[in-house]
Each structure stands twice: as C-alpha cells, then as structure tokens.
C-alpha cells in the first residue's frame, strides 16, 4: 500500500490511496494519535470538518485529511502550541507569499526544541551521575560516591535545571 505524501500545507499529493476514506479508528492507527485527539483537532479548527458517511454519519478521513493530520502530529510532537499550529496552516495556505512568516514561525520552534534538547542533556547527565553515585555506594567506594555526588550537585546548582524546568 502506498503512503500519502504531503505538500507544505499538509495537503495530500496524488497517490494510489487518494480515493480511500478511513474511519476514525483507522486514522488513529495510521497517525498514532488517539480518536479523542482527532476529534479535538476538528473541534479546535485545526482540521476542516471531516466528511461523514452518508448513512452512519461516522467520520471518514480522506488522503488530504490524513496528510494534514500527519503534519499536525509532527508539529505537536515538537510541543508547538495549538495556536501556532493553527497559524502555520493559515500561513501555508497563502503559499510563497507567507514563506518569510512560516520560516520565522518554524525557526522559533526550532530554537525552543534546541533549548529543550539541552535541558534534556543536563537531566540525562544528572541521572548518569546519580547512577554512578549509587553504584559507588553499593560497592562501598566512598571516594567515587563523593565525586558523583559533587558532579550531580553541580548540575542541580545550574538554574536551567531548577525544578520548574525539570522533566
């Protein structure tokens, strides 16, 4: 089965699946999002109202819907706020004329991601030192335990590792 590709706007590009309509369950399975999230994105205006089956009135997602949902899932995985995701799609609909604004929006998100990665690195280093500390305690190596405790303490002293920045 071919995969759906997408344009910058999240619209589906021609594929063999273009005429296929998926249920909310199938769409959730394909995108990794929950059924609840899919319905929420529709209510929040991040998705156009989804086509409904004539008799059952159940949602039926098209290839274009799937492409947009995949873009939403990716943007959301970067922790992009919903209002910025909405703005992304508004701008993307404008095409090349909105490119500078789209670049700025995505660059800001990239900076936030880089900051988050650095924060996660600090937390991973802290955990590594705590593991070393407890391994040293386990084998009664007081010298190694003191070194590991000191290193872990240095990380905790970093304001970027403060509790409200903690994971």
CATH classification class of the largest domain: Mainly Alpha
Number of strands: 2
Spatial sequence of strands, sheet with the most strands: 1-2
Q: What name is given to the CATH topology of the largest domain?
A: Multidrug-efflux Transporter Regulator, Chain: A, Domain 2
Q: Ranges with pLDDT <50 over ≥5 residues?
A: none
Shape: elongated
**Rg over C-alpha atoms, rounded to the nearest angstrom:** 23 Å
Largest sheet: 2 strands, antiparallel
Mean pLDDT score: 84
Distance between the termini: 39 Å
Q: Strand-residue fraction?
A: under 5%
Which structural class do you get from the secondary structure elements?
Answer: mainly alpha
Helix fraction, binned, reads: 55-70%
Tally of helical runs? 6
N-to-C series of helices and strands: EEHHHHHH
Explain what this protein looks like in three dimensions.
- By secondary structure, the protein is mostly helical.
- The chain has two domains: 5-77, Orthogonal Bundle (Multidrug-efflux Transporter Regulator, Chain: A, Domain 2); 100-165.
- The chain is 60% helix and 2% strand.
- It has helices at 24-31, 35-43, 63-77, 82-94, 99-138, 142-157; strands at residues 5-6, 12-13.
- Strands 1-2 form a two-stranded antiparallel ribbon.
- The protein is elongated and about 75 Å long.
- The protein starts with a strand and ends in a 10-residue tail after the last helix.
């Amino acid at each position: 089965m071919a995969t759906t590709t997408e344009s910058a706007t999240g619209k589906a590009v021609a594929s063999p699946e273009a005429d296929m309509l998926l249920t909310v369950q199938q769409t959730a399975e394909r995108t990794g999002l929950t059924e609840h999230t899919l319905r929420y994105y529709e209510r929040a205006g991040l998705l156009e109202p989804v086509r409904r089956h004539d008799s059952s009135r159940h949602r039926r997602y098209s290839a274009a819907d799937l492409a947009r949902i995949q873009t939403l899932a990716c943007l959301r995985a970067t922790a992009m706020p919903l209002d910025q995701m909405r703005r992304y799609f508004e701008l993307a609909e404008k095409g090349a004329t909105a490119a500078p604004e789209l670049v700025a929006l995505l660059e800001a998100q990239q900076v936030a991601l880089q900051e988050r990665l650095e924060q996660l690195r600090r937390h991973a280093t802290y955990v590594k030192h705590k593991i070393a500390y407890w391994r040293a305690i386990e084998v009664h190596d007081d010298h190694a335990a003191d070194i590991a405790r000191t290193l872990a303490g240095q990380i905790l002293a970093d304001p970027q590792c403060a509790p409200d920045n903690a994971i």
